[in-house]
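Before going further, learn to read the protein records used in this course. A complete example follows; check for yourself that the lines match position by position.
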Amino acid sequence: MDRNIIQKILIGFFFLTCTFIGFKAFNNSSELTETSSKPELNTNVSSSRMTYGRFLEYLEMGWVKQVDLYDNSRNAIVQASSPELGNRPQSIRVEIPVGASQLIQKLKEYNIDFDAHPAPKKSIFLTIASNLLLPLIFIGSLIFFFQNSDNFSGNSGSSPMNLGKSPARFDQQPDTGISFDDIAGIDEAKAEFEEIVSFLKEPERYTLVGAKIPKGVLLVGPPGTGKTLLAKAIANEAKVPFYNVAGSEFVEMFIGVGAARIRDLFKKASENTPCIVFIDEIDAVGRERGAGIGGGNDEREQTLNQLLTEMDGFKENKGVIVVGATNRVDILDAALLRPGRFDRQITVGLPDRLGRIGILKVHARNKPFDENVSLVQLANRTPGFSGADLANLLNESAILATRYKKTTITKNEVNEAADRIIGGIAGSTMEDTKNKKLIAYHEVGHAIVGSVLENHDEVEKITLIPRGGAKGLTWFTPEEDQTLVSRSQLLARIITTLAGRVTEQVVFGDPEVTTGASNDLQQVTNIARQMVTRYGMSNIGPIALEDENNEQMFVGGGGEYNEAVADRIDTEVCKIVNHCEQIATEIVLDNRVIIDLVVEKLLDAETINGFEFRELVSQYTILPQKS
């Protein structure tokens, strides 16, 4: 259970306990007052209870000596002695039922000594206290609980009494422990923030030439690229008040609460200028208006309207810099992105090879690596990794080193961690069966054909160890980051992807072709279709028929292309795939000997790295094929 919830439960239990104790105290005081007004009984006389019917029998038998009536004749203490009681005087309590109005007459008739004791008079103070103090304690405890729950939970907006208060965390002198030296791989974005820090520290340098500090900086990029890390760095470096809040914290079910929180946030920020307000995942509140249910009355849209007004409205907020972060800039409202609100949009993309080397060096500072570990080779092997992925890679390596009881991180742990992140957790080794041999030919087919093609990447590793949902894997490592991909490279990828299934056909025959290539066929079809519909690499011509989301674009006056165009697309996709399959078949047939040799080696070792694979095939001449 969350610690804040436990604290609230304990506070509520404390106030309920105090209320109960107060109630018992006044109840006891009333009882004491009643008791003190009653005459004291003889302590040598035992006390017991008797029914009213039995009391009347005692009265008729002449065993009753004295009766004291209390509570308006509802209760009585009877002094009696009888043979049943050993002729010893007894003090007996009797509850008199309602309607027993002839009791006094009977007592007079039997000449019994009796006395009526009036009910004690309560003081006015006790009466008022007993009626008012208990509700006041309860109401006061609720007010105190609601007003101070934010002090215990650390969230000023969590209390019902503070719904309109800003939920932002405030640091007068933030110390996040992150500096610009701890950030690598995104030098362009870091330079933009260093300029803002310089403006905050030395504003006269910029105002001398008429420059104004940006009102807003929007960080845009895929998850894990370092957007929040940059915000931590600027908070630590700027040495100005810092407000940190998530966009989702402004969204509430009550109309107007989000807008009130925005107003409160900027009011507090304007009182502590210059300052920085960081809104993480700003797309939660900055989504384009008119797209949600409820139109202009939607709570989220009201919150966005207030944010737009505060950032660049009639009333100017000088010295408040808003830093936003999102990976969905495409859904943000256009009014939020214009200059004057977010003056700068900084794209924080995936790092290139040099950037990955820098990131690995930063995260390797506090880790003891063996001499055989090359961060350069690791950076070459991890194209497409974000900064968070690389940090996780080195952390997994350290965990594996601890598991194997090593004092340093060796190349084996680094490679295993990379394999786990890319391919998944390793499964158990396969038994020597026909399926294992078939998978070996499938993976070696990928490797051989990829090595033959001039425009394909080099082999990194071939393994028969299952990872994730794959029974075997063949990894390729590009020589450089491929920002632009040529037609020959796309065809080489299709040929190499088809090579596994083609090798199964050549070696085992068509009846033995398995379902293991289903994922390969999906990749091949997707690449070929993109070549036709997006890249203009077919006989249809340089026409974009689909966008990045595979949505059909406007063609020929209609909202979507007609059946004739769809048939042409399918025909061109089949032509590309069939052509690549033919080339893959030719390469497999020409290199059947080396395929068998590598398969024998792979079945024995189960894993062959790229260096061993190239050494093994170097004794045979493999002519590069033009794709």
Summary: The longest helix spans residues 3-37. The domain at 169-347 is CATH 3.40.50.300 (Rossmann fold).
